[in-house]
């Protein structure tokens, strides 16, 4: 039995978890609240870019969307 989960599905589940975390952070005062917005934007855009890459018009477009998803993942890790 394989534990394989497709990347788009994993990205969606990650976005759900990010949304829940940001909802919690948004209820806090100070810095956590300020960071929640940026974390939300970068964390949820990973899956959006992966999904968009599935409709790429060319290989170059596909690579570009996947590269953006990777950059957003790295930014999310930073925050």
Concise synopsis of the structure shown:
This protein is mainly α and 79 residues long. It has helices spanning 7-26, 31-53, 59-78.
Write structural notes for this entry:
The protein is elongated and about 45 Å long. The protein has 79 residues and is an all-alpha fold. The mean pLDDT is 94. The chain contains 3 helices and no strands. Helix 1 runs antiparallel to helix 2 (31-53) and helix 2 (31-53) runs antiparallel to helix 3.
Give structural attributes.
79 residues, mainly alpha, 80% helix
Class by SSE composition: mainly alpha
Biggest beta sheet summary: none
**β-sheet strand percentage:** under 5%
Order of helices and strands: HHH
In which range does the helix fraction lie?
Answer: over 70%
| Integer average pLDDT | 94
Question: What overall geometry do the principal axes of the alpha carbons give?
Answer: elongated
Q: How widely separated are the two ends? A: 35 Å
Number of strands: 0
Radius of gyration of CA atoms, rounded to a whole number: 14 Å
Our count of helices gives 3
Poorly predicted ranges: none
């Amino acid at each position: 039995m394989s534990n394989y989960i497709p990347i788009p599905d994993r990205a969606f589940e990650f976005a759900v978890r990010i949304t829940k975390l940001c909802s919690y952070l948004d209820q806090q005062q100070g810095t956590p609240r300020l960071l929640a917005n940026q974390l939300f934007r970068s964390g949820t855009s990973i899956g959006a870019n992966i999904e968009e890459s599935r409709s790429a018009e060319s290989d170059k477009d596909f690579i570009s969307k996947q590269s953006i998803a990777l950059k957003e993942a790295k930014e999310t890790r930073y925050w």
